[in-house]
Structure formats: structure tokens, C-alpha cells
Amino acid sequence: MLFVNAGVKNDDRETIADVSTSEFTRVMVTNALSPLRVIETFKDCVTASGTIAVMSSGQGSLTNNTNGNYEVYRGSKAALNMFMRSFAARSGGERTLLLMAPGWVRTDMGGPEARLTIEESIPNLLNTMESYAGRRGIHYLDYLGREVPW
Ligand SMILES: NC(=O)c1ccc[n+]([C@@H]2O[C@H](COP(=O)([O-])OP(=O)(O)OC[C@H]3O[C@@H](n4cnc5c(N)ncnc54)[C@H](OP(=O)(O)O)[C@@H]3O)[C@@H](O)[C@H]2O)c1
């Protein structure tokens, strides 16, 4: 399994209307372009029936974006999801491709008000990932194994 987790966010209050070009570029490059660069670099280390996963976010769902907020971050994770779908179409093969949504978690990024502790999210998220081993195709899942609408 290859699992790409790194990600960043910008200031929550910053909308697409007022984000600077350099900040927009930082978030998009880190969250959308770089995970695909890691995958392109290491994909041959994953067996033909192995799993390639990235840490997406529920915020990347177009369907669930009914209230706005976190505009730049949402856009970067939606772009990540799209690039993974393109990767799946181009070179997914027999592999399992996973886009994971961990919930709102108390990390440096999630902050102290987040709903879930790391212990409440991540073991469940990893169990979900393991339960999808060998299920070819691309799946967008939350930490409890529920499908997230694209
Ligand atoms: N926390 C949440 O509620 C939440 C919800 C949905 C999705 N996510 C996603 O979960 C993933 C992990 O987030 P987190 O909450 O653990 O955030 P975090 O506490 O801020 O940790 C982010 C991690 O990403 C690494 N990173 C950032 N930019 C990097 C770069 N350019 N190169 C290499 N490493 C880099 C950081 O490394 P350094 O410490 O060395 O900078 C750090 O280890 C992210 O993809 C995030 O978008 C988080």
C-alpha cells in the first residue's frame, strides 16, 4: 500500500475572492499536484493488486458543498479527487485506489475544536482501507467506511 497523507490549508476565513495567488498556488500544489507526483514516482513499488490511497477530505465533495466555507481548501481536495479519477482511468489497472475522508480531527490542521480525536478517526480509517484491499477501482470513503458522494 502507498498512502499519501501530507496536506495543508489556508486561513479558513479566506475565500477564493480574496486569497492571494501565491497562497492559492501553495495549497493547490501541496494538496492536488504533489500527491499525484508522489504516486507517479512510487506507483511501481505497489503490486498490481495493491492499494494506492490519498488523504482527501469530505470537503472535497462537490455534492456536499451546500454551505461554502473553506473555499480554497475544498477546491484543492476536489482537484485531488479529479486527478485521482484521471489516474484511475489512465493507469488504475487491477489496483485499488482510495480517497479517504478522516472526518474533522483534532490535529494541528483540525484544531482543538474538532469533533474527533486521532484515536477515534485513524484506526477506523485504516481498518476501512484494509477492508477494501483487493477491491479494484476507485473509492471515495470516510473513516467509517461510508461512501462519500463525489
Ligand atoms: N484534521 C482534519 O480535520 C482533516 C480533515 C480532512 C482531511 N484532512 C487531511 O488529512 C491530512 C493530514 O492532515 P492533518 O490534520 O494531520 O494536518 P497537520 O497536523 O497540519 O499535518 C500535516 C502534515 O503534512 C505534512 N506536510 C505539509 N506540507 C508538506 C510538504 N509540502 N511536504 C511534505 N510534507 C508536508 C506536514 O509535515 P510538517 O509537519 O513537516 O510540516 C504534516 O506532517 C491532510 O491531507 C489533510 O488535508 C485533515
From TrEMBL:
InterPro entries: NAD(P)-bd_dom_sf (IPR036291), SDR_enzymes (IPR052184), SDR_fam (IPR002347). Signal peptide: none annotated. This is Short chain dehydrogenase.
